[in-house]
Amino acid sequence: MGEAIVITSGKGGVGKTTTTANIGAGLAQAGSKVALIDADIGLRNLDVVMGLENRIVYDLVDVVEGFAKLRHALIKDKRFENLQLLPAAQTRDKTAVSPEQMKDLVETMKEEFDYVLIDSPAGIEQGFKNAVAGADKALVVATPEVSSVRDADRIIGLLEAYEKHKPYLIINRIRPAMVKRGDMMDIDDMIEILAIELIGVVPEDEAIVISTNRGEPAVMNQNSRAGEAYRQITRRLRGEEVPFPKLEEESSLFGRIRRMMGLKG
Amino acid sequence: MFDLFARVFGREDASKDVAKERLRLVLMHDRGSLSPQALEDLKNDLLTVISKYLDIDQEGFQVDFSRHDESMALVANIPIKRRRV
Questions:
Q1: Residue A147 domain-assigned (yes or no)
Q2: Cα–Cα distance between A182 and B16 in angstroms, integer?
Q3: CA A140 to CA A248: how far, in whole Å?
Q4: Is A265 a member of any domain?
Q5: Exposed, middle or buried, A126 (CB in 10 Å: 0-12/13-18/19+)?
């Protein structure tokens, strides 16, 4: 029996889909059998981030409505054959599926896969309720900004109300240089405010933009700092103890000059 | 650059401290608040209980959250017409 993990955030644009794609590919790379569900009905994107948009025939709503069989709707990844995607419907809306139907679907998929990752839509309405319905665990993605942290706090409150979900925090797009000069909240600040367990810290990285352009998750790029962070999250999800490395500052000329001048900011 | 000078000479707080303080206050409010429906239910329940002992002016009956510096309070304003018992 596999484990279902929902990736959520409340606020849009903080990196839920990128996180889902990278953790999914990372788990597959490590040998697990993984299914990704795009629960953002009407605004699907996990397919393009994975580079699988041209292979879609059936979608989640087709499966739930009994119009297509699950195995016909699942798309095999290009790189890992143990990684599959169930795309969202693009021409329907969140009300096309109920939380009970999602729960049944996820239960069925857990029989076949080690991990079922569910990419939640932004917001706290039905789309969110659908996405969390079948999940055993929740990963809350937040960037070090007031709006994102505020929404994450709201989501954590809702997840705790559902009780069965233990939320874990992924801090996304942190910029070590800004943290160093006191212009961005640090890892400890965010843990202190949100009071949940940390499972990953992903630095801002241009490689994410480039890999999304190409439809290839950055987790496979050995030179990407974000990719390394996703590989560590993957290992932690698989039960390994992986220490959190110190935030490394990107070596900008300005940064080096400031350090030489002894200005710590 | 001006920012940097201002900070070196200690004239300006690091902006993350401003963010943390603002978050602390806004989350205190978010976490303590009820939805409008729940607040309405609370108000009706209070009304039922208090009406057992006092005849109250329902028009002027008000319940709301109020933020003080370090905490949240539930403030009820209950105009009384007369005692019942």
A1: yes
A2: 6
A3: 23
A4: no
A5: middle
Q: What is the pLDDT along chain A (265 residues), one digit of tens a residue?
A: 999 999 999 999 999 999 999 999 999 999 999 999 999 999 999 999 999 999 999 999 999 999 999 999 999 999 999 999 999 999 999 999 999 999 999 999 999 999 999 999 999 999 999 999 999 999 999 999 999 999 999 999 999 888 767 899 999 999 999 999 999 999 999 999 999 999 999 999 999 999 999 999 999 999 999 999 999 999 999 999 999 998 876 555 555 555 556 554 3
A146–B30 CB contact, under 8 Å:
no
CATH (domain of A43): 3.40.50.300
- Whether residue A54 is contained in a domain is answered as yes
pLDDT, one tens digit per residue, over B42-71 is 999 999 999 999 998 888 888 888 877 667
Which residue matches tokens 């109250």?
B56
Task: Look at residues A209, A207, A192, A202 and name the one whose alpha carbon lies nearest to residue A236.
Answer: A202
**Cβ atoms of residues A224 and A14 within 8 Å:** no
Q: Report the number of distinct structural domains present in chain A.
A: 1
Predicted complex ipTM: 0.81
pLDDT tens track for B15-36: 999 999 999 989 988 888 777 7
| B27/A153 CB distance under 8 A | yes
Q: Compute the Cα dihedral for A146, A150, A156, A159 and give only its sign.
A: negative
Residue ranges covered by each domain of chain B? 1-32, 34-85
In a 10 Å sphere around its CB, with 0-12 CB exposed, 13-18 middle and 19+ buried, how is residue A255 labelled?
Answer: middle
Q: Do B15 and A179 touch (CB under 8 A)?
A: no
Picking from B8, B20, B26, the nearest residue to A189 by CB comes out as B20
Sheet containing A137-142: give its strands across. Answer: A75-76, A83-86, A34-38, A115-119, A3-8, A137-142, A166-174, A197-203
The shortest C-alpha distance from A237 to chain B (Å) reads: 29
Q: Contact, A115 vs A60, CB < 8 A?
A: no
